[in-house]
């Protein structure tokens, strides 16, 4: 899918071109209009070929963000600036599943191109005009706004992970099931993705700062500082949550193991207590002379002895916290 947006003279965002997956690009000149934002979402080979033809961009730049394993980076190729960042997404099917996907930002002389494998809220905010001060003719500001909102989503999802982990922890306190431990494991995995991606994004931000790419508008440096600060905060939050989740999972695993040991200990003690009447009845069942064999109350005596011994053993085991 290809979408082309442009800020009109009234500073309102307008959609000047839209192509879905079934259409064919007939004229690439529309893409060359100045001060536009071209958004590619899961583009077909024909879409990439059309953009490549319009701007003479290396195909590998356009396809970079389509590789899920692509790492965050910044690359300058002549007049083309390529920025790859990792964007957080939340699975709609699994509330505990969070991951990241690449977002490609290609900055040309008069245009900006974004490339993604799927739709997600970050891009939708810009498409729907929800970002204050967003203009397609301010390319540097657009890049920084994308980075800032992206970091905001990391912080938002990290808080969600914190809330979900609290819910799972409270459930574990009531009843310990493998499902809850698997949820903690899923959250830990999400935090690993976030931490890795945030550190990669931080490296891109540092490179932007060192290369002095933000110098057109007075507020851009302040915005970049905000992005860097929020990114560091997100990294710290992810690290803290990861440590807490790891400690929580280990603690509950230890508790579950300890509970199992206690159950086995009690079962063993109960087996010992129940074995006493069996042993005594086995001895008195032998075809040899035994006490009380001729006594009319012998059977009752054997039963009483078994009960008394069982009571004594039970008391001793309880005293030693074996029951």
Biggest pleated-sheet summary: 7 strands, mixed
Count of discrete alpha- or pi-helical segments spanning 4 or more residues: 7
Strand-residue fraction? Answer: 15-25%
Shape: rod-shaped
Can you give the helix content as a percent range?
55-70%
Ranges with pLDDT <50 over ≥5 residues? Answer: none
What's the arrangement of strands in the largest beta sheet? 2-1-3-7-6-5-4
Ends apart, CA distance between termini: 68 Å
Helix and strand pattern: EEEHHEEEEHHHHH
Structural class: alpha+beta
Count of DSSP strands: 7
Over the alpha carbons, how many angstroms does the gyration radius reach? 34 Å
Average pLDDT, rounded to a whole number, is 86
How do you describe this structure in short?
The protein is an alpha+beta fold and 323 residues long.
Protein architecture, described:
By secondary structure, the protein is of the alpha+beta class. Helices cover 55% and strands 16% of the residues. The chain has helices at 45-55, 59-63, 121-127, 139-174, 178-210, 220-284, 298-319, and strands at 2-7, 13-19, 36-41, 73-77, 80-90, 98-107, 111-116. A seven-stranded mixed beta sheet has the order 2-1-3-7-6-5-4. Strand 1 (2-7) and strand 2 form a beta hairpin. Helix 4 (139-174) packs antiparallel against helix 5, helix 4 packs parallel to helix 6 and helix 6 runs antiparallel to helix 7. The longest helix has 65 residues, at 220-284. It is rod-shaped, with a radius of gyration of 34 Å. It starts with a strand and ends with a helix.
Give a topology summary.
Layout: E1 2-7, E2 13-19, E3 36-41, H1 45-55, H2 59-63, E4 73-77, E5 80-90, E6 98-107, E7 111-116, H3 121-127, H4 139-174, H5 178-210, H6 220-284, H7 298-319
Parallel strand pairs: 3-7
Antiparallel strand pairs: 1-2, 1-3, 4-5, 5-6, 6-7
Helix pairs in contact: 4-5, 4-6, 5-6, 6-7
